[in-house]
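Hi Y.,

Following your request, here is the sequence exactly as I used it, all 191 residues.
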Amino acid sequence: MRPTLVIMVKEPRPGRVKTRLGRDIGMVAAAWWFRHQSARLIRRLTDRRWRLVLAVSPDVEGLASRVWPETLARVPQGAGDLGDRMGRVFRSLPPGPVVIIGADIPDIAPPHIAEAFNALGQADAVLGPAPDGGYWLVGLARRQAVPARLFDGVRWSTAHARLDTEASMFGLRIARVATLRDVDTAADLSR
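Below is the corresponding structure, written out as tokens. Let me know if you'd prefer a different format.
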């Protein structure tokens, strides 16, 4: 089974993406940054070792968007919080390991993704921690059904997100990979 890498993307419209960054540098500049960051990331992570899928939002607009390469498979994120949307993606894809990342982590490279898939050879789940208490990557080997309570009780966008996610993975063997930063504010851009 070929593993699947999913990149969560939003249609890059001012006021719709990277709003915290937009408060610092302006909504148009934040949308521009996200659009170009996403395009670079997609090019960099296109690799024959895994299938690349975009999880798009909003659903209808994202599925029809001309912003993203037409050759890439797309699935709708659907409604709900981040956990609802990621859980839906994990449950909807064909069998095999799945790793999900966001598009706002400039330092991700193919070796990071390969490391995560390699970790899923021994573990049930994998997380890529972020310094702020969240994470930039989550993956499941999916050798059994995706846990029904996956992501229940996660306090998103807080310093508790990673620990809450690990708690929702009760009973799963969890591996960790490299710590990377995402971009939420202008200060993150300068790093």
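The beta strands are 4-10, 51-57, 73-76, 98-102, 125-129, 135-140, 174-176.

Thanks again,
Q.
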